[in-house]
Amino acid sequence: MTTSTHPVVTVVFGSEVHSAATSDEVAELLERAFRSPTPVQVYSWDRPCRSYPEHGFDEWPNQQLRISADGVRAVLSLTIVPEDPDEPSGPDVGTWETCGADNEVQLLADLHSPRWYAPGQAVPIDQARAAAEQFIRDPARRPDAVRWQPGEYV
Predict the structure, then answer these.
(1) Per the domain annotation, does 154 fall within a domain?
(2) Is residue 3 assigned to a domain?
(3) What is the greatest pairwise CA distance in the chain?
(4) Residue 40's domain spans which residues?
(5) What angle do CA 139, 24, 29 make, to 5 degrees?
(6) Total number of domains constituting the chain
(7) How many Å apart are CA 6 and CA 86, to the nearest integer?
(8) Do the domain assignments include residue 113?
(9) 27: phi then psi, degrees, rounded to nearest 5
(10) What integer pLDDT is reported at residue 67 of this predicted model?
(11) Which residues sit opposite 13 in a β-bridge?
(12) d(CA 140, CA 14)
């Protein structure tokens, strides 16, 4: 088993929650997210994210990376949700979505609503992987591995 200085990464696949701590586990979990047929949420924190419904509270950071993938075409659309998308505090107010791709792929943006990314928002998998790795290292900053445009809060 490989150890790492990675934070703990939690990925939500529908109603399933999976966490990983080592660099190998994180890489495997991200690859699964990149192949998911439905949108997923990625969290990077100092501990696994979890819910305690019997006690009425959750432990989840606000920052998240949302991933929607087309595994056949090897393209993904991403959304960054900052600490508090409704509270103005610097350049990362609100959500940000990938942009600038030269394709007509449209991917589902949210599993729980009928919102789709616009054509041209899907980026190649290598760019999405680099952005996800940057997010995991520093979830407080918007990754610079892809181009972003202001998004809808989802």
Answers:
(1) no
(2) no
(3) 48
(4) 8-50+59-148
(5) 60
(6) 1
(7) 28
(8) yes
(9) -60, -45
(10) 96
(11) 16, 40
(12) 24
